[in-house]
Amino acid sequence: xxxxxxxxxxxxxxxxxxxxxxxxxxxxxxxxxxxxxxxxxxxxxxxxxxxxxxxxxxxxxxxxxxxxxxxxxxxxxxxxxxxxxxxxxxxxxxxxxxxxxxxxxxxxxxxxxxxxxxxxxxxxxxxxxxxxxxxxxxxxxxxxxxxxxxxxxxxxxxxxxxxxxxxxxxxxxxxxxxxxxxxxxxxxxxxxxxxxxxxxxxxxxxxxxxxxxxxxxxxxxxxxxxxxxxxxxxxxxxxxxxxxxxxxxxxxxxxxxxxxxxxxxxxxxxxxxxxxxxxx
Length: 280
Fold this sequence. Notes:
The protein is α/β, with parallel strands linked by helices.
């Protein structure tokens, strides 16, 4: 599914860490890795040198792992230039790191990372780095909604990330409390909750089995963002892979946005994944 992977790098350390996730995905997929740096207008010489040095380190690491790698450096507006590269090279997925503005700005609307995820015609892995020293995740938490679009690609991305790091996957779902008319909320045992797993989640798990990925599952009714944060912190997961939010701005205002909550409060590194390949 992924034969060409692009890692967008800048002068910030979090972008270099994000690119190293891309390296391991490229290794697992047997894909070519493109390392891209777009220098914005007015960038300082110091920042330019930091970005170039980061690209060199990533290039050397990828070559040591036997990955075919190409570096691309340009100038201009990052989203526009990266979009051109994606179309010209036929990139399948782009890795990009969040910046401070993505965490501070509500709904992360208008940020480079958000704009990139909306505009590029391919899949996007938006990486939020919390722990620089935890680059090699052994426990990956994957929160899933009842209805999942692009199930096949989401499972493929998760499986290949797990394969690259030899990780175990923990599928997590926060269903609404089960109720019956006139009886109020009914509490179910974990086994009973499992029997009620939505079809899309069952399909996701079947794909993990197909790829031979070790996994476990858990259901915990409650507020989605808070439940995920508590689960990740209490079980000391190393990485969360979560689908990009499909809620519009009005729903986010009224109901809250789990992605926004995790961007701000995640206790471990986080990948917000936007699939770009339709299930066949």
